[in-house]
Amino acid sequence: MVKKKLTYKELTEKLDDIIENLESGELSVEESMEKYEEGVKITKELLAILNKAEEKVKIMRDQDEMEF
């Protein structure tokens, strides 16, 4: 089964939920570590999305400058 790629908004919401869970203090050490690792993975995904968007903006800006 193909895993659906989450949007930036969905990823940030998921990260917010993880942060709330971690800050609640109700998780065991093991659960906290799992949530932390998941949060790091999501953060990397978010940074990749932002970097890709930044590259697209640079390309569009460079193309506009070449037209003038």
TrEMBL record:
Keywords: Coiled coil, Cytoplasm, Exonuclease, Hydrolase, Nuclease. Its main location: cytoplasm. InterPro entries: Exonuc_VII_S, Exonuc_VII_ssu_sf. Gene3D superfamilies: Exonuclease VII, small subunit. Its EC number is 3.1.11.6. One of its GO terms (cellular component) is exodeoxyribonuclease VII complex. Residues 1-63 form a coiled coil. The keyword Magnesium does not apply. One of its GO terms (biological process) is DNA catabolic process. It is found in: Cytoplasm. It is an enzyme of class 3 (hydrolase). It catalyses: Exonucleolytic cleavage in either 5'- to 3'- or 3'- to 5'-direction to yield nucleoside 5'-phosphates. One of its GO terms (molecular function) is exodeoxyribonuclease VII activity. Pfam families: Exonuc_VII_S. Bidirectionally degrades single-stranded DNA into large acid-insoluble oligonucleotides, which are then degraded further into small acid-soluble oligonucleotides. PANTHER family: EXODEOXYRIBONUCLEASE 7 SMALL SUBUNIT. Heterooligomer composed of large and small subunits. HAMAP family: Exonuc_7_S. Belongs to the XseB family. This is Exodeoxyribonuclease 7 small subunit. It comes from Proteiniclasticum aestuarii. The lineage of its organism: Bacteria, Bacillati, Bacillota, Clostridia, Eubacteriales.
